[in-house]
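Hi there. Long-time user, first ticket. I'm pasting a complex I've been working with (about 1156 residues overall). I'd like to know whether the download I got is complete or cut off, because the file seemed smaller than I expected. Thanks.
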Amino acid sequence: MSEKKIIAAIGGDRRLVEAVRRFARDNTVSCYGWDNCPEICGSIKRCSTLEETVKNADIVILGLPCSPDGKVLAAPLCDSSIRISDLTAVIPKDTVICGGMLPTEITENFCKCIDYYKDELLQTGNAVPTAEGAIMIAMQETPFTIDGSHCAVLGSGRIAKALVPRLKALNAEVTVAARKKSDRAYWETQGIKVCGFEKAKDILPYTDILFNTVPALVVGKTELDIFNNKGIIIDLASRPGGVDFEYGKKMGKRIIWALSLPGKVAPVTAGRIIYNTVVTLLNEKGVMV
Amino acid sequence: MSEKKIIAAIGGDRRLVEAVRRFARDNTVSCYGWDNCPEICGSIKRCSTLEETVKNADIVILGLPCSPDGKVLAAPLCDSSIRISDLTAVIPKDTVICGGMLPTEITENFCKCIDYYKDELLQTGNAVPTAEGAIMIAMQETPFTIDGSHCAVLGSGRIAKALVPRLKALNAEVTVAARKKSDRAYWETQGIKVCGFEKAKDILPYTDILFNTVPALVVGKTELDIFNNKGIIIDLASRPGGVDFEYGKKMGKRIIWALSLPGKVAPVTAGRIIYNTVVTLLNEKGVMV
Amino acid sequence: MSEKKIIAAIGGDRRLVEAVRRFARDNTVSCYGWDNCPEICGSIKRCSTLEETVKNADIVILGLPCSPDGKVLAAPLCDSSIRISDLTAVIPKDTVICGGMLPTEITENFCKCIDYYKDELLQTGNAVPTAEGAIMIAMQETPFTIDGSHCAVLGSGRIAKALVPRLKALNAEVTVAARKKSDRAYWETQGIKVCGFEKAKDILPYTDILFNTVPALVVGKTELDIFNNKGIIIDLASRPGGVDFEYGKKMGKRIIWALSLPGKVAPVTAGRIIYNTVVTLLNEKGVMV
Amino acid sequence: MSEKKIIAAIGGDRRLVEAVRRFARDNTVSCYGWDNCPEICGSIKRCSTLEETVKNADIVILGLPCSPDGKVLAAPLCDSSIRISDLTAVIPKDTVICGGMLPTEITENFCKCIDYYKDELLQTGNAVPTAEGAIMIAMQETPFTIDGSHCAVLGSGRIAKALVPRLKALNAEVTVAARKKSDRAYWETQGIKVCGFEKAKDILPYTDILFNTVPALVVGKTELDIFNNKGIIIDLASRPGGVDFEYGKKMGKRIIWALSLPGKVAPVTAGRIIYNTVVTLLNEKGVMV
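Hi, the file is complete. Here it is re-exported in full:
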């Protein structure tokens, strides 16, 4: 049912490269800003100007996060900087624009914007590379095995649901601290020990590895004071994070704030997830690729 | 923090007996309608009249379902029938009444009613004995092992979340059919194959065991026509069920409608779940037991 | 590489029927003694005499156990009895004879005998239906779920290796009692609690379900005296079993001796295992089927 | 039953420190050669001469490997070198000597030698940190997740038995290549795909991560020629390893020879395993600690 589209990929990191390679199987793809990416497959055309890249494009695909400052594209593979005002100057207003965390400079200038970052497919899909990245860090940063260690996971969302069964399968002793009783009931059906947040303090002195997934200050001074000195805290929560880092540092606790794990530990997988998400979102809007 | 309460247990089945035994550890408990239940522990007082049973009671606990017809209590262990009008006649209006699926004859007559059936703790907790019961039936009713069999699970709710990981752990090839893309994304993070309902037809001819958890007609004539003749359908959905039973029977398909599994396959566990739920609900209302 | 063979199947139960159906895909198959087996597929020829059945046969396949008394074939699907002396009278001495637990009346009369019962493929393969059968019995016979129950497994062989991970996956608390320290070390790498046999006594009073896999008297008077009165013992060991049944019965303990589970709970799977084993054994002897 | 012993620990790495800390709970312990190990707990006495260290010692504990060259102890935490001839000069001949891979210079000089390296407890116990280390390397060195990747494991011994279920639990597609049919039958009971070594070639072109556990040249030129160019080979086999490294390098294949993982990724766990093994071996010889 899909028909060949003309797609322009601009900026982004290795994840975008991986996503776009998949589009290139069945579509005509040009790219810009991938200077330091030697291994592009033959069918993607490297362009030297933005004009050439977007010429006749049905869809423009940008990276994630698209542009942290709203002015210049995040483009770590590009030798020069790509300004959003240059994009708006050359791309027709009704072109479909796909990107992650699109800034208002883009959403206000184009009428067919798709922000793939917010989609559940991406968020849920990313839970797996995040969980694997968290496990990798735990293995790297502790002198003991996950097998037999006491792990605590704060929170009960997507990341916890990917992380907890993996820790259990590696034979850790896992306890989940969850606020809602329905979440606690769920974990018990999976054979996982649970406690409320107020009871987390009982387990912190004996916890070897504490994974936080809650983006709110849940590991504050009280929790840090009692946390096992030989343990490690791996904070997986996005900004502002869930740990009082400064106080923890002062107290000599080992804390790692592990952000953006999918792109760091598994860019190919993360790129595939972006691809799947964008295809689904395009199809939902009637654009078949 | 809890203080000794006077509790009256009336009617119900073995699950209620098990739940009430746990209350009897720290409370004063009387029972009525447990004639055919020889093994009650010493501290529960058997009464021969309703009046005696409920005298001074803080809490009256009834079974699940409390009374299918709204007139007589479900009391399979009782030699005579217990009428709701007899209860309302002898129990003070402000007594706490706990029961499952309380009929209006009760909720209209008492001002402190707690229906534990609707609570998430009970619903989620029951998913485990339901899943085990479904697996037991599959083992009993098929001449092959679950190991290596092709299983399909329709739906993505509590029961599916308890059933699917158990089937996978028994080395079945499991596919979940889920309507929502967020549910499908979730299952994929758990290493489970998924499809939409519209695609379920592709797998039905090769499915050995089909578990339905959706309480709506999802296995109709079309699905039954193509379903594997050597396979079996186990419907776990509450009334009206999810299978066109009549047509399926006519077509010679093997269909089992497995209702109320917790009470049938694991009444002790189901009683413990009722106990935990009732304690939590009482505490939430400020009644400490 | 395989070439069409002429195969005669005589006696046996449903497992043999299932095994032979698979041979019938690529070979010419006759059968005798399957009177009460309506569903044979078209290509298997039913014969009314032994002579007709074995005529020109390259291979004769018999059931498991072939003949408990050494005189008459085990043939539960047959209306009459089939005597071994009748077989030896009509089958040429150099015909390949495959059967399970072949009696000397056969091994002494034929020079190309293959006893598939002794083969590791069959023994190991059967561990799965045995483990599933044991789990089914535990589900049927206890009023609680396997989830959360305290299970003990005596022994560390094939059946234990299939049973223990399944119990763990169903969220039981499993302890394995193993005699050899290397076995105990193995189980610990799998996240399973272990103890020596002499320490098993410490756990018996708290064990809900005791699975024995050791064919020697390991559950004697001492063990039965202390075993949990609400628990159940499922003995999976072949004769003479591992439990002092008489004493256990006297003490009111619940004991189930579950023999020959593969044929009972999963004859189709058990038949597939026989087929795979016989094909491998034939190939090892240079007979390609 | 154990009585306090006088124990001297000499040389070794962090694993030995961890092992000895556990001995120090109930015994009198001196150490030598731990200069760069600041965190020894108070009860272990640091000595400045060998004489002082071994004075009155019942047991001398050495590291693993004790001494690769047979002349000088492996002592990475020591600023100077410790010669075996110095040990033999000051330790009475009938002192119990425990070490890993004891050289003949020691076994010929002392009559009560215990080589803990060869023991099954240590070998089997180490399979877990080896498996976790292998998984950590796979996560670090590949741009994709283990989830969904195609993994092949060559061999069927202790390491494979620890590694394979962990990979499966992380939702990899795992195939085990095993030589013996009994091993293949075992893996099938665990829901794992298997093949013989001769068939491994069929899967190599599609394998993302190849783990070798066989200490013999099983990944030679033929295998390397067809191995997936985007894949990685992690060789866990001890010397001489199982891969033709030179040819693989020439062919541009990514190969990691991961030796001695327990000490590298989990020295605390590895130390605990050494402790458990030494205690068991001492007890078996009648020395209670």
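A couple of notes from our side: Residues 6-118+266-284 of chain A form a domain with the Rossmann fold fold (CATH 3.40.50.720). Chain A has a mean pLDDT of 95.
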